[in-house]
Amino acid sequence: MNPTNFTACPECDLLLNPAEPVIGDKAHCPRCGYLLQRPRKQSIERTFALSIAGLILIFPANLMPLIGIKMLGGAKDGTLWSGVVALFDEHLWGVAVLVFLSSILFPLLNIVLSLLISAHLYFNQPSRHLARWMRWLQHMDEWAMLEVYMLGVIVACVKLAATSELKFGFGLYAFVALLIVTGMLASSLDKVLFWRQIGQLRK
Predict the structure, then answer these.
(1) Coil, helix or strand for 109?
(2) Contact 117, 132 (CB under 8 A)
(3) Could you tell me if 4 and 72 lie in one domain?
(4) Average pLDDT, the chain
(5) Is there a single domain that holds both residue 150 and residue 80?
(6) pLDDT digit string (tens) for 52-61?
(7) Cα(189)–Cα(87) distance, integer angstroms
(8) Can you list the alpha helix ranges (DSSP code H) found in the chain?
(9) Which of 27, 71, 80, 186 has the most CB atoms in a 10 Å sphere around its CB?
């Protein structure tokens, strides 16, 4: 009996022999009922398409104005990137690095890795880097926090609305669209299927 052919339930550590999944069916642990697997339809195709959409959206979301603020006769536009620069200028280096990594770099890497992996699987192009890229991608999910930044934008808008005139820029619409696309991307990526396809390409 080869132990590498088994998988452990994350909840109760029961060793299970993973069966070939059927699209639309769910696999539950027979001991605790934990949802082990839920194969997704057209996972590779959807991940490929959503990655392209995310790559298109991430640049205007980061570089174009999110909110224009008009107050006391002056006006200023704010972008995601200018917010990071402002934090550096205020010597808040730790916060600036954290915002840059979680709101700009890691989401970009997440999209790029998803695009690279899904493109290789979609076109059946083997690469010795696929397994490494997949491991990196699984770690990116823990660090990309666009939702937290969006919550900060909403809080800032609520606080500023009473004392200034706000104008929503194209960057904000791109950011909201990016948030939706990355959420769909995370739900469309079937990690079990991707690992299986990577293993087949390496044979």
Answers:
(1) helix
(2) no
(3) no
(4) 82
(5) yes
(6) 999 999 999 9
(7) 34
(8) 43-63, 80-89, 93-100, 106-122, 130-140, 146-160, 170-188, 191-202
(9) 80
Cα angle: 104, vertex 149, 114; to 5 degrees:
45
Nearest of 182, 183, 109, 102 to residue 145 by alpha carbon: 102
Domain range enclosing 9: 1-39
- Same domain for 161 and 180? yes
Q: Are residues 89 and 109 in the same domain?
A: yes
Q: Are residues 49 and 33 in the same domain?
A: no
Per-residue pLDDT for 19 more than 70? no
**Structure token pair of residue 165:** 């005139």
First to last CA, the chain: 22
- Give the separation between CA 21 and CA 38, rounded to whole angstroms: 8
Burial of 146 (0-12, 13-18, 19+ CB in 10 A): buried
